[in-house]
Specification:
The chain is of the alpha/beta class. It has one domain: Metallo-beta-lactamase, Chain A (4-Layer Sandwich). The chain has nine helices and twelve strands.
Length: 306
């Protein structure tokens, strides 16, 4: 897993040398019981979602391991106490390593393949070797299940495409969709092929979400705006527009691949101006890295990556 994390971090290369470390988080109220949290750090802005109410606290994605106190304090500020359930959207360390901050008490729910992937190496999590069982899912799913909690039917739907073990979560009453990293609200998506990324499956799953849920939903992405920009949820229209632009960029690169151009030639030509705002350097995927991901997939080179 150390090798996996090191390579995955190349998508966020040199950030720690460029940006000062912050340990803060912002909160956005989505409904009376559901809140979005954005972690602000030198290496990214992963989102978490909290449901608080009479049944207790449910937490979707636990963030970085060293942000445990930040998230716990936000839970207390929102009137919550001990976390009863944790749901993980996928295997990446910025979404699961915080599992260890909440001890043995919460029931952790995730894709069966998420548990399998996390068990492959005892170095999980990134910082410090701990009792791995404390951070692994207690309940694993291969098919959709519903959790009834704080007056909500919460649909948990397993997927694969971003990693081997993904899940999307939908709060039926509040019409809140938590996509995990099937949505990077402000940038290009991350594709780490040795970790289970599969480009066509990824976009097929997004298309499913766009067709499965109502038009007036609130969407929480795996990563959205960066501080100091205001924290926000996204609309279905914004999600669809992002999806269509990503698909358009893929078609542009595919046509250049089919014409016989090399990776270096395609990267030099780059993408049209309308894609420029997705290039969030140094925090996320640059245009060059996005072109590389597309090139690797459609030339088949991704199959040989380690």
């Amino acid at each position: 897993m150390i090798k996996y994390i090191f390579v995955f971090l190349l998508f966020f290369i040199s950030v720690s040398e460029i940006l000062p470390q912050e340990k803060s988080a912002d909160v956005l109220k989505l409904s009376e019981a559901v809140f979005m949290i954005r972690i602000n750090s030198k290496t990214g802005n992963p989102t978490s979602v909290i449901s608080t109410g009479g049944d207790g606290v449910l937490l979707i994605d636990t963030g970085f391991e060293d942000f445990g106190d930040v998230i716990k304090n936000k839970i207390k500020e929102l009137g919550g106490e001990e976390v009863k359930y944790i749901i993980n959207t996928h295997t990446h360390f910025d979404h699961v390593n915080g599992n260890f901050n909440f001890g043995k008490e919460p029931v952790i729910i995730g894709n069966e393949k998420l548990r399998t992937e996390l068990m492959k190496d005892k170095e999980f999590p990134l910082q410090g070797v701990k009792n791995i069982s404390d951070g692994l899912p207690d309940i694993t799913i291969n098919n959709e299940i519903s959790l009834y909690f704080n007056g909500e039917q919460i649909r948990i739907i397993p997927l694969s495409g971003h990693t081997y073990g993904d899940a999307m979560i939908y709060f039926t009453n509040s019409k809140i969709l938590v996509t995990g990293d099937y949505y990077f609200g402000e940038g290009f998506p991350v594709f780490y092929y040795p970790g289970g990324a599969e480009m066509e499956s990824y976009f097929n799953n997004i298309n499913y979400m766009l067709n499965e849920f109502p038009d007036d939903i609130k969407i929480v992405p795996g990563h959205g705006t960066f501080s100091p920009k205001e924290i926000k949820y996204y609309t279905k229209e914004e999600y669809r527009n992002w999806y269509l632009l990503m698909k358009e960029s893929i078609e542009i690169i595919k046509s250049k691949i089919n014409s016989g151009k090399t990776l270096e030639e395609i990267q030099k030509e780059s993408l049209p101006e309308k894609f420029k705002h997705f290039d969030i350097k140094p925090r996320f995927v640059s245009t060059e890295k996005w072109i590389l991901s597309i090139y690797q997939y459609y030339t088949g080179a991704y199959k040989n990556l380690e």
